[in-house]
């Protein structure tokens, strides 16, 4: 079982208790008290509450607070994200991989092109950056703000 837990990416080794507790919490919502006691081999109902009951609240608190309908399907999908992870998927990128991904990024390429645009607009309109400093600031500001607006719209994660 130790190899299984390592291969699955768990920090702690899995024990039979972990599997029994998972099964107990799964059948808790669909079985009666007597069925659960029988399935788990307990002598009474207090054992489940003391040792097996999940500490997680099975209520969509955010939806309740906001007064919106609960998205049970979404909550279940988020709760099972770890189970759907590809075992060979990298947990983090190396610095070389990050740099390569950034270089290949089309968005970054567009940003670099657009970053040069205000400078070239100023040079085109004023013949040099030195003479542009005495120009109308609203015109200069507009030349700079347009690419910034595009950047904010295209890259909301920045």
From TrEMBL:
The Basic and acidic residues compositionally biased stretches are 124-152
Domain of life of the organism in this record?
Eukaryota
Q: Matching InterPro entries, A to Z? A: DUF3435
Region span, Disordered: 124-158
Q: Mind telling me what this protein is named?
A: Uncharacterized protein
């Amino acid at each position: 079982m130790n190899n299984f837990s390592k291969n699955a990416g768990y920090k702690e080794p899995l024990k039979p208790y972990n599997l029994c507790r998972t099964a107990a919490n799964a059948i808790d919502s669909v079985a009666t008290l007597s069925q659960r006691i029988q399935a788990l081999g307990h002598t009474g109902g207090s054992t489940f509450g003391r040792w097996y009951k999940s500490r997680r609240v099975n209520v969509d608190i955010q939806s309740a607070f906001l007064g919106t309908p609960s998205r049970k399907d979404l909550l279940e999908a988020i709760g099972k994200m770890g189970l759907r992870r590809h075992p060979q998927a990298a947990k983090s990128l190396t610095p070389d991989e990050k740099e390569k991904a950034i270089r290949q990024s089309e968005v970054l390429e567009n940003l670099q092109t657009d970053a040069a645009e205000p400078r070239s607009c100023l040079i085109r309109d004023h013949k040099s950056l030195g003479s542009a400093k005495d120009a109308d600031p609203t015109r200069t500001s507009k030349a700079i703000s347009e690419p910034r607006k595009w950047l904010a719209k295209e890259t909301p994660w920045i």
